[in-house]
Each structure stands twice: as structure tokens, then as C-alpha cells.
């Protein structure tokens, strides 16, 4: 039996979901953010933890860049993104003194930071904590999973794009999850088609079908496809109304459906 | 928790592992063991004597098309049968080059285009390479030191996203062997540029010359109505403005062509399938500029030696 988790900052977090990929640039951070918002839309209290040390993108997506983070007696206070305090964020991006300065560290230093990061954020009570990870299967991924293991994460959402080059890496990520004892809740296929704003023809810009094929091959649930939406991307870039604009996007329906599957797969909590 | 970064002299500097602020850092021993020339770097320098030009393809950001670009740079250069090209894939966790080049285990795409990747060493497409930094570094060192590269005109090194072990290692191992420079790939949107600025700063920190920046996925032409849209909008001025601000050359912009992805999936050169695509033309112009940069360097070095 695993050692019982210390009653620490994650004690009030009911469910932890990791968002992984093997491949960079498939939209992990975007999906993490959209998933968190979809769960919040379903009435849940959600936190987002961004452990991508080399490329922390979430603060900008949510218009929280440059927000100061404060220490409270239990550790770092996460940044709340709404008045109701139903969605909060912690990212290593908040701790960088100069946003253009590269965090050029080797593995052990990254591991040490991740370990502290995971345990030192005072989340309070949360229904879901969505953990965004960097691409790969190396030091920081192992460190993240090991740090979260005592809290028994619900599982991992694995993101791919449709083409074979992504699927090739994501297959390896599924093996990684298996080896690390992390349950795969399902696969999400992102960037699934682009609808031309001029003529509404939908083109498979990054090939097609890879996500569903992979899910079948690997025997894991296929949670859904999310289309490319440049209007949404523009909003994410500009950072301000994303929380308001998201429900109007074609991606929203896809994410709502994915969030529902996660809610359905979440076991009822024991007191 | 310590603030990030905190008086760290830099894992690549001469003070790495030896500065006052290094005491107690988890990386200390690693950094200290790497600083300065070692027998390995000397061996690598010897091996690299038969390699005329070395180009690193970098980005800070994943998924911008580094491997696609590296592969097509290799294809483009290899069209001249008299030029020997070597493509080295040091993305240990996510080795995409074998797939993009259509290789399962053979190492030569053409007689004059050879490829090396950790992907070839894996027995199954499901095998995951779950290695920590030191083991990854060891693999990279082996690739550089133990592979018999022979007479090579261009060695192209495809890297993983980020600024970590692999990047530090390849720069350190090749430091004495002279790298011509780095080509940095980005897409137009700020989320990419954010990471690419860090990559440019990394290059400057380790004194790696920057050949220039390529803006990939720059606009999309609908195959039906032929009108252009921006799938990844350049909300903060795209690579052009960033390059102006940071005083690095913009080598060119490559539009999104769905045929690129299709050909990569099949492991074929996109240039053959779509020779007249605006993307092909963009690639060719960029490749030419890279060759010009490398030749300029070569003549400068020759002048220095003969003077």
C-alpha cells in the first residue's frame, strides 16, 4: 500500500487529471485550458497547474500574464481568474523574472522545482485540478507523476493531432502511461479540420483519422475531436475575453462533450 | 520555494557548477562535470573534421514544424547528387524523423542522404524512451562520436522542443567543432513567439550564431475557393516584427499546405508531390539563403587561415 499522503495542499483537491502528449504543439495547453473551462461551465470548481518549465503558455491564454503571485502561510496562492473564484491557475510562468529569459536547466533542477511546485500551491477546495505538462517522456514527466502519485490522479487525457507523425509519438506516450501506472482516460484529437471562413469548405489540414485509429489500436476510449478555430486562437492569443468567447466557438461543443465523458467517468467521492 | 532563476550562472557557462550560488543546487555535480573541453569533445572534434557544415534546427516551441523543416532541408540539399547530406535526429523522446523520411530501419534515403535517429534503435513503434537527462546526453554523445559520418557537406541536427539537456549537450559537444549556425522555426502566433524569443536568447547565451528564423504555417490557401486565411493569426506582428525587434534575419515564410502533412505521413518528400506549391517555392528560397550563409562562413574561415 502506498504511504498515505500528507495532509497537504492537495488534500482538498478531489480529482486530478493530467493532460499529456508525446508530441509538442498538439494543443495540450489549449485543451487543458478549454477542459478546465468546460468543467467549470458544468458547475465545478477547477484549478489549472502549468508545469511546462520551458514554455509556460497558460498565463497569457487566460489574460493573467504578469499577475503577481503571493505567498500565504500554506504556500503559493493560486491566481483566481474570475470573481466567483471558481477557476484558479498556477504556472511557473508567474515566477519568471524576465519572460524572454530561457529556463535552461538540466533534469535534476527541473525535478526539484516540479516537486516543490506540485506540493506548495495552496489550492484549497477543488473539484478538479487539470495539470498541463510539457511534451516528452523524460525527467519532468516522471517527476510530475511521482509527485502526484500519493494523491491518486483520476488519470491522463492524451492529446494528439490527426497525422501519423503525432500519432507515432503519442503511441509512445501511452506506453509511458502504462509503465508509470497512470490510467489513460482517453484520447482527444485536436486540430481536426479547418473550416474556410470564406466558403465553409472543411479541409483536413493535418491529415485525418489518426486519433480514432490510435484509440482503437491501443484499446483506450476516444473522447472526441476538436476542430481548428482561428477566432478562438485569436482570442487565446489576445488573452482577454477567452472565458466569455469560448462558448461561442465550434470547439466548445467538442469540449463540452469531452468534459461530460470525464464527469461520467469520475467515481462518486467517498467522504 | 526559490524564485526562478536565482543567480544561476547558467548550465552552459564556464562557472557552471562552480559558482557560489551553485552550492546545494540539484544540478551542481552535473554542471560541474560538463564544463570545459573533455576527451569526448576532442574525439567528436576529430570525427567532425570531415563534416563541412553543421546546422542546428531549433525552436522553443513544440509542433511548429522543426522535423518537417529539417527533413525538407535535407531533401532540398540532397537534390544535388554531388552533395553529401546527413540528418541527425536528437529528439530522443519523440523521434519523428524516421517516419517523415519514410525509413523503418534503413539509414539511407538516397545514396547521398543518410539519417540517424534513436527511432531506429527502438524495436516497436510503441516503445517509449523514458530516459532522464544523463542517459539522453550519453546517446547524443554516441551519435556524434561513434557514428561514422564520413565526408559530409551538410550535417543537419533536428532537436526536440525546449531548452534543456539535449540542447545544452549538442552545443557543448559540438562547441570545438564549429557549428555554422541555428535555424529557428516558429509559427506566427504569440504563443510560439514567446518561446522562440527564449530560444534566441539561449543561442546568444551559448554563442551559437543564428542563421535566421523561418515562420511556418504562415497562412492557408483554401483548396476550394483559393482564398487565404490565417489559421494561426499573427496577433503580435508574427515573426517579422520579432525578427526586427531582436535583429535576426527572417529567412522566409512557409504557408500551410495540407499536402505537407500527407507526404510526411507517407514518408515522402513534399517537393516531389507538389513542386509548384507556394510552400515548395518558399522552402527553396529559404534553403538557398541557408546555403549562402554557410558558404559565406566557409570563405571567411578560409580567408582567416590563409591570411
Percent strand of chain B equals: 15-25%
Q: How would you classify the helix and strand content of chain B by structural class?
A: alpha/beta
Largest sheet of chain A: 8 strands, mixed
Separation of the first and last Cα atoms of chain B: 55 Å
Summing up helix and strand content along with how strands pair, one would put the structural category of chain A as alpha/beta
SSE order of chain A, one letter for each helix or strand: EHEHEEEEHEHEHEEEHEHHH
* CATH topology value of chain A: Rossmann fold
Helix content of chain A: 25-40%
- pLDDT averaged over residues of chain B: 85
Give the SSE order of chain B as H and E letters.
HHEHEHEEHEHEHEEEHEHHH
- Regarding quaternary structure, what we see is heterodimer
Described by the principal axes of the CA atoms, the overall outline of chain A is globular
Low-confidence stretches of chain B: none
Q: What would your notes on this structure say?
A:
The complex is a heterodimer of chains A (271) and B (307). Chain A has 9 helices and 12 strands. Chain A is an alpha/beta fold. Chain A has one domain (13-265): P-loop containing nucleotide triphosphate hydrolases (Rossmann fold, 3-Layer(aba) Sandwich), CATH 3.40.50. In chain A, the strands form 3 sheets. In chain A, strands 5-6-2-7-1-8-9-12 form an 8-stranded mixed β-sheet, with helices on both faces. Chain A has a two-stranded antiparallel ribbon with strand order 3-4. In chain A, helix 1 (28-41) crosses helix 9 and helix 5 (164-179) packs parallel to helix 6 (210-218). Chain B is an alpha/beta fold. Chain B has helices at residues 28-34, 39-47, 66-78, 97-100, 133-146, 165-174, 190-205, 238-246, 258-266, 270-273, 278-306; strands spanning 51-58, 85-89, 108-110, 113-117, 152-158, 181-186, 210-215, 220-221, 228-229, 250-253. In chain B, helix 7 (190-205) links the parallel strand 6 and strand 7. In chain B, helix 2 crosses helix 5 and helix 7 (190-205) runs parallel beside helix 8. Chain B is globular. The interface between A and B is large, with 74 and 76 residues. Chain A: This is Cytosolic Fe-S cluster assembly factor NUBP2. Chain A: InterPro entries: Mrp-like_CS (IPR000808), Mrp/NBP35_ATP-bd (IPR019591), NUBP2/Cfd1_eukaryotes (IPR028600), P-loop_NTPase (IPR027417), YlxH/NBP35 (IPR033756). Chain A: One of its GO terms (cellular component) is centrosome. Chain A: Keywords: 4Fe-4S, ATP-binding, Cytoplasm, Cytoskeleton, Iron, Iron-sulfur, Metal-binding, Nucleotide-binding, Nucleus.
Amino acid at each position: 500500500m502506498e504511504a498515505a499522503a500528507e495532509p497537504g495542499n492537495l488534500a482538498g483537491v478531489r480529482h486530478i487529471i493530467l493532460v499529456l502528449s508525446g508530441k509538442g504543439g498538439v494543443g495540450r495547453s489549449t485543451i487543458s485550458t478549454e477542459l478546465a473551462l468546460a468543467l467549470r461551465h458544468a458547475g465545478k470548481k477547477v484549478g489549472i497547474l502549468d508545469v511546462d518549465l520551458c514554455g509556460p503558455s497558460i498565463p497569457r491564454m487566460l489574460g493573467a500574464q504578469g499577475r503577481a503571485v503571493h505567498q500565504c502561510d500554506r504556500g503559493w496562492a493560486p491566481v483566481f481568474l474570475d470573481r466567483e473564484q471558481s477557476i484558479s491557475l498556477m504556472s511557473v510562468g508567474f515566477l519568471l523574472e524576465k519572460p524572454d529569459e530561457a529556463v535552461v536547466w538540466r533534469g535534476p533542477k527541473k525535478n526539484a522545482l516540479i516537486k516543490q511546485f506540485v506540493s506548495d500551491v495552496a489550492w484549497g477546495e477543488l473539484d478538479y485540478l487539470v495539470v498541463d505538462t510539457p511534451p516528452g517522456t523524460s525527467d519532468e514527466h516522471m517527476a510530475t507523476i511521482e509527485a502526484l502519485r500519493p494523491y491518486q490522479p483520476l488519470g491522463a487525457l492524451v492529446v494528439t493531432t490527426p497525422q501519423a507523425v503525432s500519432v507515432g509519438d503519442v503511441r509512445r506516450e501511452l506506453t509511458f502511461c502504462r509503465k508509470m501506472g497512470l490510467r489513460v482516460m482517453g484520447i482527444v484529437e485536436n486540430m481536426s479540420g479547418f473550416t474556410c471562413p470564406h466558403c465553409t469548405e472543411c479541409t483536413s489540414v493535418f491529415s485525418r483519422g489518426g486519433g480514432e485509429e490510435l484509440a482503437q489500436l491501443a484499446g483506450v476510449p476516444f473522447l472526441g475531436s476538436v476542430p481548428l478555430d482561428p477566432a478562438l486562437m485569436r482570442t487565446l492569443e489576445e488573452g482577454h475575453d477567452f472565458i466569455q468567447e469560448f462558448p461561442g466557438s465550434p470547439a466548445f461543443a467538442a469540449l463540452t462533450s469531452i468534459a461530460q465523458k470525464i464527469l461520467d467517468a469520475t467515481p462518486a467521492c467517498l467522504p | 520555494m526559490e524564485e526562478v532563476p536565482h543567480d544561476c550562472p547558467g548550465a552552459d557557462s564556464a562557472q557552471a557548477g562552480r559558482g557560489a550560488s551553485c552550492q546545494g543546487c540539484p544540478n551542481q555535480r552535473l554542471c560541474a562535470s560538463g564544463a570545459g573541453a573533455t576527451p569526448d569533445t576532442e574525439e567528436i572534434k576529430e570525427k567532425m573534421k570531415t563534416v563541412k557544415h553543421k546546422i542546428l534546427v531549433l525552436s522553443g516551441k513544440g509542433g511548429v514544424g522543426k522535423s518537417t523543416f529539417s527533413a525538407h532541408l535535407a531533401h532540398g540539399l540532397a537534390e544535388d547528387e554531388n552533395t553529401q547530406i546527413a540528418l541527425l535526429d536528437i529528439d530522443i523522446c519523440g523521434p519523428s524523423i524516421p517516419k517523415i523520411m519514410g525509413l523503418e530501419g534503413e539509414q539511407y534515403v538516397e545514396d547521398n542522404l543518410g539519417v540517424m535517429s534513436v527511432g531506429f534503435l527502438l524495436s516497436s513503434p510503441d516503445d517509449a524512451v523514458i530516459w532522464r537527462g544523463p542517459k539522453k546526453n550519453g546517446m547524443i554523445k554516441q551519435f556524434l562520436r561513434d557514428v561514422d559520418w564520413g565526408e559530409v557537406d551538410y550535417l543537419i541536427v533536428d532537436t526536440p522542443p525546449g531548452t534543456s539537456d539535449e540542447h545544452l549537450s549538442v552545443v557543448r559537444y559540438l562547441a570545438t567543432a564549429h557549428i555554422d549556425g541555428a535555424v529557428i522555426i516558429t509559427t506566427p502566433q504569440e504563443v510560439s513567439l514567446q518561446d522562440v524569443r527564449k530560444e534566441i536568447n539561449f543561442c546568444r547565451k551559448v554563442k551559437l550564431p543564428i542563421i535566421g528564423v523561418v515562420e511556418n504555417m504562415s497562412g492557408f490557401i483554401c483548396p476550394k475557393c483559393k482564398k487565404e486565411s490565417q489559421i494561426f493569426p499573427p496577433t503580435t506582428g508574427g515573426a517579422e516584427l520579432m525578427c526586427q525587434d531582436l535583429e535576426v534575419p527572417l529567412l522566409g515564410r512557409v504557408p500551410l499546405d495540407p499536402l505537407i502533412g500527407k507526404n510526411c505521413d507517407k514518408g515522402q518528400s513534399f517537393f516531389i508531390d507538389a513542386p509548384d506549391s507556394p510552400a515548395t517555392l518558399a522552402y527553396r528560397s529559404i534553403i538557398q539563403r541557408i546555403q549562402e550563409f554557410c558558404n559565406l562562413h566557409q570563405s571567411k574561415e578560409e580567408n582567416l587561415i590563409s591570411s
